[in-house]
Amino acid sequence: MFVYAACISLLSKPRRGLGLTLALGTLRAVSAWRIVQTEVLASGSVMVTLKSLSAFGILPDIDKSDIPEEFKKSAEQALERVLNSAFRETPVSAIDPGRVKTPSML
After folding, report:
1. Three-class SS string for 20-81?
2. What is the C-alpha to C-alpha distance for residues 67 and 51, in angstroms, rounded to an integer?
3. What are phi and psi of 81, to 5 degrees?
4. Those residues with Cβ within 8 angstroms of residue 2's Cβ, 6 or more apart along the chain or in another chain
């Protein structure tokens, strides 16, 4: 559902909207963004810092059907950690969360 809300309304949300998903674009071309910070500037304007929720260009397409069932959940969690850290961490920090522990690693 697409609902327009002025950024100023984020200031009255719990945690000033931190963690909410914001859709930018139109019904034909939309992208999803996570709100990572909302602040009021000296001019009174509201500045919203966003993080893209798209994995475009960060990770290759992964065929999850090749992952054994017992490892799917940990593989999905590892991919989520990589995406979460990709825009805010150093390359090494983004690579480390991508390691999936297999029985041979335990």
Report:
1. CEEEEECCCCEEEEEEEEEEECCCCCEEEEEEECCCCCCCCCCCHHHCCHHHHHHHHHHHHH
2. 28
3. -65, -40
4. 23, 27, 30
- In whole angstroms, what is the distance from residue 66 CA to residue 74 CA? 14
Q: Which residues contact 18 (CB under 8 A, 6 or more apart)?
A: 35, 36, 37, 38
- Given CA atoms 7, 50, 55, 19 in this order, what sign does their dihedral have? negative
CA pair distance 92, 80, nearest whole angstrom = 16
Could you report the per-residue pLDDT of 4-31, keeping only the tens digit for each? 667 888 888 888 888 888 888 888 888 8
Predicted confidence (pLDDT) per residue in 78-87, tens digit: 877 777 676 5
Q: On the CB side of 54, how many CA atoms lie within 13 Å of its CA? A: 10
